[in-house]
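Supplementary notes for students who missed Thursday's class. We covered one full example, reproduced here. Read the sequence, then the structure, then the short commentary at the end.
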Amino acid sequence: MIPTIAEAGALIAAKKVSPVELTRDCLARIAAQNSTLNAFILVTEERALADARAAEARQMSGTLKGRLDGIPIGHKDIYGTAGIATTAHSAQLIDNVPTRDAVTVGKWRDAGVVLLGKLATHEFAFGGPSFDLPWPPARNPWDTERFTAGSSSGTAAAVAAGLALGGTGSDTGGSIRGPAALCGIAGIKPTYGLCSRTGILPLAQTLDHAGPLAWNSEDCAILLEAMMGYDPTDPGSVDHSVTALDIKQDMRGRRIGVIRHFHEVDHPVSAATLRGIEESCAIFRKLGAEVADVTLPSLQEFNAAGWVTLSAEAWAVHEEWMRTRPMKYGELLRCRLALGGLLSAGDYIQASRKRRQLIERSFAASAGFDILITAAQPMEAAKIRDVPKWSTLEKPNFTIPFNLTGWPALTICTGFGEGGLPVAAQLIGMPWTDGLVLAAGHALERENGARAKRPPV
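Structure (token representation):
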């Protein structure tokens, strides 16, 4: 049985499991399954075994660094890793080898994690699923003909299949929460400014968030606690007092706001997705919480402001290469970036003004609520070959509103729908209540039983 991070950490601390044995198990699963899943684009076997042996030495000497010491993980391939290629899944950076770790990579390294390798992503965290890149797109472990969502596609696939116990992701418009939803795991976009982005390849600076994906909320809390913290080298980082994440907080007396119009009116969801949200609300009531509807601005308003902001900022990052070597991008990313080049300064300013208004209206509507709940994805995973080229623009998504606000948002599995594929709910909190959001997810997972089921891969 594949352990969670919490379980593996406890077994390592009790000297009942060797970090080397655990790492070899993960490497064996990678060898057996990665040619089908394409979750890893680079496996660092020698580094992993060296990390594991060092962790085992600390284990035997009684000097373990904490709950992550000896835990096998992977990094999304936009996270800089010293001496290890960081390509953004793109021909543009196929020979890029950073000289230093991203700040968050360094934090996990210092916590004693075992680095298994680099994980697939949509190209530069924006262009996917693409079939004209140096590596194929990741596949969904529940059905390898299905989409993972993106852009943290490899991380979600690896965690779901047990190739790694956790991993890093990034979230600019939903790139942690979407893959977590379709792959049946947990993923949190933290409060904007909680985790450093220094050393992570950018997409849109005012929307980018770094965060973890793992099998459940408890594991996400363990990972997030080890990667968060103020970083003066990141202009978006905030020196805030969050130093620990308590996932044992009681739900009794909490006020839960259901953003019903998001998933019933603005973008109606599948029957199984709706059932998972309603069952989650019933669990909250059972646990002593008060549940009521809340009305935010429409998804359409959020998406209009969000995609103008994202497209303009992404163009600013990639403009030089789009002008000088555009054919080194895959077709899908090249087309998406080109949209940003058609926007004017006035478009961006108007989107920024709209964003401020949406944030103010959202704070006002959410006053008095502790947690908000809505969908993370509209339905179960589609066939990967059927994903439209402009899928990101065809219908409003449920995740980008909270990149605009910067509020913490967590995806958890709430059950299974058509074809046995996972469905999910999204839990949102006010700024700096990341621990409460994870506690709410943990409470739901204890009750809904979805974590007992692994993919059939």
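Commentary. The radius of gyration is 20 Å. The longest strand covers residues 409-416. If anything here is unclear, bring it to office hours.
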